[in-house]
């Protein structure tokens, strides 16, 4: 069963905005959800992570106030709203969930990824 499905990737010019969405399976039990990204040849890195039971929200330093992570528990959705995009934000973006407080921002379950390309 596919438990996390991303959508909303695409191409945008620098300075533009993009909204990614992650549909979470209603049968998935999780403690937190977040967004990660990866470019070829580099390790996957965390972008934004949220733990509803703790109301804990963290962003990577490179986000610099440009992104938000709207979470809709009622619709089993988590989004990544990205603004003021830069070419260096180009990457495959992944939605992930983790199952315990100890695993904050460490994905246990991953989506398939969606490509974001920012042109200068």
Structural account:
The N and C termini lie far apart (38 Å). The model has no long low-confidence stretch (mean pLDDT 96). Strands 2, 4, 5, 6, 10, 11 and 12 form a seven-stranded mixed beta sheet that branches. Strands 1, 3, 7, 8 and 9 form a five-stranded antiparallel beta sheet that branches. This protein has strands at residues 4-7, 10-13, 18-24, 32-38, 45-51, 56-59, 67-68, 71-72, 77-82, 91-98, 109-110, 114-119. The chain is mainly beta and 120 residues long. Helix content is 0%, strand content 49%. It is built from no helices and twelve strands.
Could you tell me the number of beta strands? 12
Global geometry: globular
Report the span from N to C terminus. 38 Å
Strand content: over 45%
Helix % is under 10%
Rg on CA atoms, Å: 13 Å
Q: Structural class given helices, strands, pairing? A: mainly beta
Order of helices and strands: EEEEEEEEEEEE
| Count of alpha and pi helical runs | 0
Overall pLDDT metric: 96
Biggest sheet layout: 7 strands, mixed
Contiguous runs where pLDDT drops below 50 for at least 5 residues: none
